[in-house]
Amino acid sequence: MKKMYKLALFLTGFFTIIVLNFSAVQAGLIEPTRSLKATAENPGQLTVFSEPRGLNIKLDGKSVGQTPMRINAVDPGTHQLQVGESVTDIYLAPGQPFHISLFKNKFIQFQVAKNEASEAGKTSTSETPAPERSSEHLKTKKENRKAWERWMLFVNGSSKHF
After folding, report:
1. pTM over 0.90
2. Sheet of strand 44-51, all strands in order from the earlier edge strand to the far edge
């Protein structure tokens, strides 16, 4: 009789533990609030310019800084962009840069050609020698080339500063 009582007590405890574990596992499951698809998309890149410089930028109602500015990680999709007092809706494609400028209270979207950005660091050579220029002209041309290279690196996202 004692053996039967111990066996019954053991089986009752065993099944109680199994039932409690099963109900705890069931209660622990939570419905997902977002899918993996949204996190798998690459963030977009937003570059904002303005004339005059130093205008406040708001993205979806949140202040993000002043022009000129590049934001490297922006969720893809439609956003509301405010530069100064001007507001527009923009669409950022996943993993793609988006360049926009405010000039005379009008937004201008522009794209940077990839070959221009890659050629910014290269110097072109021709077989026919160019006529000799004054040292002042060469200095100005060299400074302009450096400024152009810095600008292209800023616009294509390789550099955060112009």
Report:
1. no
2. 69-74, 44-51, 97-103, 106-110
Confidence of residue 106 (pLDDT cuts 50, 70, 90): confident
Tokens of 153: 């690196």
Q: Tell me the C-alpha distance between 12 and 6, whole Å.
A: 10
Handedness of CA 144, 147, 153, 155 (dihedral sign): negative
Cβ atoms of 51 and 103 closer than 8 Å? yes
Question: Are 70 and 101 in a shared domain?
Answer: yes
Residues 66 and 95 in one domain: yes
What's the pLDDT band for 15 if we cut at 50, 70, 90?
Answer: confident
DSSP one-letter code for 119: H
What is the distance of C-alpha 58 from the center of its chain? 15
Contact criterion met (CB below 8 Å) for 90 and 97: no
| Structural tokens at position 51 | 């004339």
How many domains would you assign to the chain?
3
